[in-house]
Amino acid sequence: MRKNSFSAKKKDKKKLIRGILQGMILFLGLYAILTAMFFPKKYEAFEGEGHQRETGFIAISYFGVDIVGDETLISSKRLDAHIKALKASGYVTITQEDIKAYYQDGKKLPEKALFLMFEDGRRDTAVFAQKILERYNYKASILSYANNLENKDNKFLNAGDIKTLQENSFWEMGTNGYRLSYINAFDRHNNFFGQLNTKEFQMVSTYLDRNYNHYLMDFIRDEYGIPMETYEEMRDRITKDYSLMEKGYSKAIGYVPGMYVLMHSNTGAFGTNNRASAVNEENISRLFDMNFNREGYSRNHLAASIYDLTRIQPQAYWSTNHLLMRIWEDTQQEVAFVSGDEHKKGDWNTILGESEFIEDRIILTALPRDKGLIQLKDSRDYKDIALSLNLEGNKIGSQRLYLRSDENFKNFICIELVDDALHVIEGKDNESTTLFTLDLNTHDGIDHQTMGENRIASEIRYLEAKIKYTEDMSQLKALNSLLEEKKKAQAEGLGVDEAKYIPRTDIREKGSRLMEISLKEDRLSLSIDKKVVFQDMKVSVLGTGYVALEAAYNDMGYSQRNLADSVYDGVFKALTITDLSQQRNEILYTNRLTGMEKAIYNAKQLWQKVLNWFIKNL
Questions:
Q1: How is the beta sheet containing 348-352 ordered, strand by strand?
Q2: If you placed Cys at 141, which of 135, 153, 174, 256 could pair as Cys (CB 3.0 to 4.6 Å)?
Q3: Is the predicted pLDDT of residue 459 greater than 70, yes or no?
């Protein structure tokens, strides 16, 4: 009885806590709705006639916004930091009409003009970006796909949502086209997947490299690259897509948005095939006032065509300084790089790049195609020390720790993580020697699939996608039969004797490594993720010297989506340096959170987890 009574009380307590939290969430949500209804804010356009035509404008386009963020969607907190920094840098948002007038009527623009976009038509983008736009008085264009307008998928904006946004002064409408669909797709093993819709593509994307195309870019081809349609059929297919888009928007909202983003050319034309490009160009010029045709560069100027505009697409992992560094690279205009905690930053000399100190993290942003470098001011006489920290920069790129370094980095001991590999490097009299190298996949004990195992897994995933989303019910029996055959081959271990498949590291892949280092006299010891790498390795740089941190661009790396980036963020978390020359092991430096700062941080983290849970589960 006591046990049951205790259990019932525990359940009642959980219900009470959950009820209180739900009430708080509902109250905050109701407050936000009532504030928006009865105290709506209005976007205020920039005043004056503008000052320049030569500089042009920059265009920034986000894939989407989520409260937490993921590989693709930027978190609302990070988006707020980006927009705040753009505002501090003097950027003023312009509209689609401003762009038209700039190219067609000779209109001048603000000194720092920004055209802001959110692509892919996600409903959560509108929800989480709204308050940020209001806070900084920024206007943005939100894009959608016409085939989602009558869709009941809650992820995407429908006709009703767009009508509501039309009444909101912070938004303009644009379009990504009728559909997001793929043709001429092969997996990495050269298996022909043919045509894939968005959901099918998402299911098999792990097994694809870059051997596929977007629906409007080319002829539909067979596995040998031979067109499966005549020119007239290709022309009719592409033109039909534009017609469906036109009808969809006209029916749903009464007009076709004037701004288009072609998915996805980046070729300097309007398709990867010249004849498909000509068909796209004809339809684009007929339907739209402007087209963003390229990605990777933010600046647009008078020499460009209004139908061949370019934008930069910040990734979800970009720090604020990463975005500002890319804009600075494109425009050479001054931007307001952020420092974060000025007191913590004051402990370091910034030699190259930009650094931001947030809570217990040091985010070191490299110069474009170069590096970032900071040096701990009071560490000149450090010799026998222990360090612990987490390295949380993306796997592609270089993060370095310098120990016993002289002022000019001619003599040093260096521990480097680069492209998911560890290197220990010693510099003596301006000459470097690599003392130790380790593949961190080996350190982790990862047993990779063979090429054959990966190939069969890819084929199975493709068949599962086709079965799940096929619209041709007559094919289901044949697809299920093929799937059973592939699963049988997988179970029998077909392909286990082939060479290993070593995945390429994508530029977006996050890294997280706990490093613990001990350097005493002529001996260096290192552990990664609580696993010993080596102990008492002999080193020959024996003098005192600085501790320094470096982040470096390391070529563009691999990207399935063919994203290019010229800037790298090193992230150094919870760095602690301890003196080993004395028995008491005094802490020489730490940026770990302590005391009230730690308590406030933990409370914020807990509250964020609660919010995230309710947003995803209510």
A1: 348-352, 371-376, 546-552, 398-405, 412-418, 421-428, 431-439
A2: 174
A3: yes
